[in-house]
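Supplementary Note 2. Why include the ligand at all?

Several targets in our set were suspected to adopt different conformations when bound, so apo predictions alone were not considered sufficient. For every target with a known small-molecule partner we therefore ran a joint prediction. The input for zinc ion is given below.
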Amino acid sequence: MNSNYENFVIVKPSVIHGNGIFITVDIPSGKDIMLIEGEVITEDECIRREEEEGNVYIFWNEDSYIDTEKTEKIKYLNHKCDFNCEVLESENNGLKLTASRDITAGEELTIDYGYDEIYEFCRCSLCA
Ligand SMILES: [Zn+2]
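The joint prediction is reproduced in token form.
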């Protein structure tokens, strides 16, 4: 990664839900913010942890499943329909958080979780 903003990411209470992660500097659209690190697991194990353990901290795309439950910051990433970040593939089948638009210092970092149930409970201005 040519830029690492992780040191500028802080965890604090969010108006969206519980704690959230916030950025303390401006970030231009398209910049990588931080790697999404944790335990690499299989798709079957992902399904088992979600169903049996209620684990909501697993990030995945078509190739990678990463359980971030024991990772400090990224697990507090909240959903927002008007999101400002996206999860992309990084090197070695990993995942990374990237700015999907220009982000201003102080903003909460958010993604679109992208599964149907989230929109039922979402209280954002797009869903209300
Ligand atoms: Zn919404």
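The chain has one domain: 6-121. The chain has a mean pLDDT of 90. Comparable summaries for the other entries are listed in the accompanying table.
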